[in-house]
Fold this protein.
Amino acid sequence: MHEMSIAMAVVGQVEEAAGAAGARAVTSVRLRVGELAGVVPDALAFCFELACAGTVLAGAELVTESVAARARCATCPGTWAVGMPPELCCPRCGRATDVDLLSGRELEILSVRWEDGPAGTRTREPISEEA
C-alpha cells in the first residue's frame, strides 16, 4: 500500500516546517490529489492517522481536494475529461499522438494549520510546496 509511504512523506515534510516555525501542534493538512495520482483517499486518510501518531501532527485533520483529469489535443482545439480508466484519445479527431495531460496527476500539500506562540494562541500558517 503506497498510501502509507505518501502519508509518511507528508507527515515528515509538515513536521519539518512546523518545527522550524516553532509550532506546538498541527491541526489540519490540506492536500490536492489528482484523479490519476493512483491514491485511494480512504486508504490515505487511514495511513495519515497512523503516520501522525506520536508526532506534532497527532490528531490533525486531513482534508483532500480532488482534481479531475483533463487532456487537450494539440491537433484540434479539443479538451476533455479523461476519466477512469483514462481515455487519452481525442474524442473529436480520434488521435492520441498529440495529447497533453492538463491535470489529474497532482499530489501536493496545499496548506497546513498549526498552533504556535503562547498557550491558547492560535494562528494559521500556509505552507507552499512550490519551492
Notes: The beta strands are 25-34, 61-67, 70-73, 79-81, 99-103, 107-115, 123-125.
